[in-house]
Amino acid sequence: MKLYSNIKMLREQLGLSQEELAHKVGYKDRTSIAKIEAGKIDIPQSKIIAFAHALNTTPVELMGWENKGYYTDPETAAYAEELRTNNEMKMLFSAARDISKESMKKTYEYIKFLKTQEKGNDE
């Protein structure tokens, strides 16, 4: 099943050991992760969100379900996907995971500022 291979692929991309992932999702040791990645045991539905969060993805993507996409512009969608998946570029997404609400607001305001600057340069 795609879920099991996705878990292993994302874990490896993030440089996490089975032990580290186990602790992030609430298992005592790596044994359960090894069995899940091998497709020997199923993940309880309640753990899908925990796995997605620990692997910096969404449940939809983790499960391998089709995602219609968020962005209307194909170039923006492609760049956003590169930001999400390229280890060197995913800082934007992973940085937002553990920041405070205030810092997130400041980041949002800065992005709005950049957009106004971009519009000003187009005129």
Automatic annotation (TrEMBL):
InterPro entries, per the entry: Cro/C1-type_HTH (IPR001387), Lambda_DNA-bd_dom_sf (IPR010982)
Q: Which SUPFAM superfamilies match?
A: lambda repressor-like DNA-binding domains
- TM region(s), chain numbering: none
Domain HTH cro/C1-type intervals: 7-62
Q: Which Pfam families match?
A: HTH_3
Q: In terms of domain of life, where is this protein from?
A: Bacteria
Q: What is this protein called?
A: Helix-turn-helix transcriptional regulator
Q: Which organism is it from?
A: Veillonella magna
Upper taxonomic lineage: Bacteria, Bacillati, Bacillota, Negativicutes, Veillonellales
